[in-house]
Specification:
158 residues
């Protein structure tokens, strides 16, 4: 398999390819009043999941490209403090940040100057390929949780 072929496969996965639900589909039409809603037996709200997705994706991206990046404290630094967006515009800002960072990860993978296989110099064996696959895997997992939450709240028709 060629290097370009691997890049195309990873980009397909990152951009909602295959069996994975896409980010845009998972968040579309979620009523504002349910973004912080809890459902019995489910530990996270839609806001909590969105912020967790955003923070983790940002952390992986920054680790991949910035040797001076410092990750948030685990686990608390990877989740928002409250169950609801703190301000009206917080949801939209988080959504846009997620989109921007996903695009940046895709750009990193698509760049022919990015060696997908060489260990990241400031890491302990990670490669850009591994980090891109981690983003895709992590996003798919939590987007599935978001859809399950939406089903429980009665706001998922698919």
């Amino acid at each position: 398999m060629s290097d370009q072929s691997v890049r195309e496969h990873v980009l397909y996965l990152l951009k909602d390819g295959g069996a994975h639900l896409g980010f845009e589909q998972a968040i579309a039409g979620l009523p504002v009043e349910l973004r912080g809603a809890k459902f019995d037996g489910i530990p996270h709200t839609a806001w909590g999941l969105l912020e967790h997705l955003r923070i983790c994706q940002w952390d992986i991206l920054e680790f991949s490209r910035n040797p001076d990046h410092v990750s948030p404290k685990f686990p608390d630094g990877y989740w928002p403090v409250g169950n609801e967006p703190p301000a009206t515009e917080s949801w939209d800002q988080s959504v846009q940040s997620f989109r921007d960072d996903l695009l940046a990860m895709c750009d990193l993978v698509a760049n022919p100057d990015t060696d997908l296989y060489v260990p990241i110099p400031h890491g302990d064996g990670q490669t850009i390929l591994r980090e891109a696959l981690l983003v895709a895997d992590h996003n798919a997992y939590h987007l599935g949780q978001l859809v399950f939450l939406r089903r429980c709240l009665g706001v998922w028709d698919e």
